[in-house]
Write a sequence for this structure.
């Protein structure tokens, strides 16, 4: 762990850490499916952090998250993680402990300027989703200026990308392969749900997104929220399901601004 919180996950004294590189590390079989554990954790609880690089690592088997950037986890005082690079990692078998649901790559709260590229993610035997952008309860403390590109994400029954951060969250998602072989109900291969979206911006283009299975209300690309500025273009959206109560290439329940 880089950074820490009041539960002493990592050092409890921080000094604006910057230019930290985690490279070519291997984490295997971390946990036994009974405890919340994270393979690689960067957390700005006490001071801001910037220029964090996590690349060329292998993660295989962890109770909860593979790579997690937790900015300002519990307090309303902004402590951000800025300029983060996550690339060329191979991640599988996350989420052995399913409480809460694990994520292979997880950005939470005030993560500003982050590139996620050239990662290979496979779900394996457990229930972690692919790439997740999220927030706790503090308004505006959301991931912003995130680029998700050139990733190969193959998931069995969870979203390949799950974004549940509102307000001014922003992400550009392009040139990825997202494949979900058999989605559970009420989830989509790329699943974006956030309230309110106020000034959120999502650009999604030139991706191949495939969703298999015949589960109802399980679609390829879904937006659920209002007020976002959204550009969706030049994607190949493939639904392999035949359920008439779902399995649509695109689904939205609200009114994003296209």
């Amino acid at each position: 762990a880089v950074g820490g919180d009041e539960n002493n996950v990592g050092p409890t004294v921080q000094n604006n850490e910057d230019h930290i590189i985690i490279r070519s590390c291997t984490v295997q079989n971390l946990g036994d499916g009974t405890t919340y554990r994270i393979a690689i954790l960067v957390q700005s609880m006490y001071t801001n952090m910037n220029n964090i690089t996590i690349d060329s690592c292998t993660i295989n088997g962890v109770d909860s998250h593979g790579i997690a950037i937790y900015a300002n986890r519990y307090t309303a005082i902004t402590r951000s993680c800025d300029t983060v690079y996550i690339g060329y990692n191979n991640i599988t078998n996350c989420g052995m402990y399913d409480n809460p649901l694990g994520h292979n790559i997880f950005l939470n709260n005030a993560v500003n300027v982050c590139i996620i590229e050239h990662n290979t993610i496979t779900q394996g035997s457990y229930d972690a989703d692919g790439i997740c952008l999220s927030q706790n309860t503090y308004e505006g403390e959301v991931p912003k200026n995130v680029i998700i590109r050139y990733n190969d994400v193959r998931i069995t029954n969870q979203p390949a990308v799950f974004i549940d951060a509102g307000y001014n969250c922003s992400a550009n998602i392009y040139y990825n392969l997202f494949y979900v072989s058999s989605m559970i109900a009420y989830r989509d291969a790329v699943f974006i749900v956030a309230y309110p979206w106020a000034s959120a911006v999502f650009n999604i283009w030139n991706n191949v997104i495939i969703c298999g299975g015949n589960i109802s209300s399980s679609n390829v690309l879904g937006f659920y929220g209002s007020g976002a500025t959204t550009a969706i273009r030049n994607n190949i959206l493939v639904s392999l399901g035949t359920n008439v109560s779902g399995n649509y290439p695109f689904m939205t329940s609200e009114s994003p601004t296209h």
Remarks:
- The longest strand covers residues 38-44.
